[in-house]
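Before relying on records like the one below, remember that each one covers exactly one chain. Contacts with other chains, cofactors or solvent are not represented anywhere in the record.
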Amino acid sequence: MIPFGFLCMLATSLIWGITNPILKRGATETQQETKGNLNFLQLLSKLFLNFKFVLAQLINWSGSVVFLVGLQYNALAIAVPVTNSFTFLFTEIADQMMEAKSLLEIKKWMFNTEMLLGVFFITVGIAVCLCA
């Protein structure tokens, strides 16, 4: 059976990994729409009127809550690198899937040698953290 703390780290990473590209796109779209003609407060108000950005931000914050719950079951020295490694992996996967125009592009990217090598090294790093 998989420990609850590990599931919390995995859930946090998945939530953060999926919402990171959405937040990046929302912020970039808002910045391009305004063309830099707004001050900081106007830009913030424009961002928070963007429904997709606000929803993604709320979901991202829920990942932080899950992370804090998971810290009750994991040491900080293990939780942070494992969560960050998985988040990096899930962010890359989500970003590539959002940019892909077809299923064939996703297949080419997923079975790319560099991608598989990166996944291998992330897995080895996580295994070292968990076994140490």
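Residues 4-131 form one domain.
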